Amino acid sequence: MSFMRKVGAGLGAAALSGLMASTAFAVDLQFYFPVAVGGKAATTIQELTDEYAAAHPDVKIDAVYAGSYQDTITKTLTAARGGTPPQLAVILSVDMFTLIDEDVIIPFDDVATTDEDKKWLTSFYPGFMDNSMTDGKTYGIPFQRSTPVMYWNKEAFKEAGLDPELPPATWDEMVEFGKKLTKKDANGTVTQWGLRIPSSGFPYWLFQGLTTENDVILANDAGNKTNFDDPKVVEALNFMVDLSKKHGIMQPGIIEWGATPKAFFERQAAIMWTTTGNLTNVRENAPFDFGVAMLPAHKRRGAPTGGGNFYIFKDSTDEQKAASLDFIKWITAPEQAARWTIATGYVAPSPAAWETQAMIDYVKGFPQALVAREQLEFAVAELATYQNQRVTGILNDALEAAITGTMSAEEALKNAQAEADKVLADYR
What we know:
Keywords: Signal. The chain is α/β, with parallel strands linked by helices.
């Protein structure tokens, strides 16, 4: 609900008429945000949006909760094609190429033209800007950003005779620890798996943790060439399959993304890989002491970044573009970014946000929140190409084929590369 709608609900007709007259030249903004109605993320976004609107009575912002990231990009493009796009939105950073290809967004360089603005554009972590820029221009501003991290149950580690303060630091250690952490009942049925890496939803993202650690990049910076059939990618997928098939430390078959935190809380798995965006959820709901660590290294340490960026839409008036920029600058400023991180667990996107007193106090009492920030030093851009949903869908299908055993990793990835080449040929 917009600020103006809330105000109107509490005013008499005469008072409302006077207020509307005083804001006759107000700028109206529609803001799409990828979250279902309700929950801490929605509450926090609404609070921040209302605060901005209260301080800027000439700007009316209607925050539209558009559902999942997939729902949000679909609704946004449908609205844009119909001539009624929002003025600004938070959409996946990897959808930047799609939004450019559809010609619906503008580079921030077009509106952020002052010296102060240009300084602001360089104030974010470089790791997040890798998925926010192309051809020397900035199309996205990091906000709801994340990386995958590893969570572990310290109680389960103690029970398995492992040091509860030392998570696995390498692939070999993850397998070794996983075997000690996997429990079976008298009938041989597994009651606790050592490890859980989700493979539904957007499996390519967590798989990219493995490929990064195996020192291979899935796509080029231009977004027009993939490397799905690289031997190092095949090796990473074979390792993922072997966690179940060979090592017996992970549930076989497709593992549900959404059910993973609950499975961790219920001790169905002692270690899980998931987004740092689950940090607050785990902190509030894990019935045991837990740790958070960077993903384990192999040939190198590393993980992809993830999450959403702010975008400004082309089909807006100059006044709307200027107001959108001002709102985005305000909500990504250190104090507001700190509030968002503390409420949700997403990574504050600028070093300055971590220097606020709120964040200093937060990490003092919850040092696990520092892990994702420290991992940024080793992070790579999330897989992003033109026709991104088609290309990531091709890779996801290949991962599923290998995980379910319908194809070998090598065959599945060879086919995926051929399909991706057909999709991206026109962009080279």
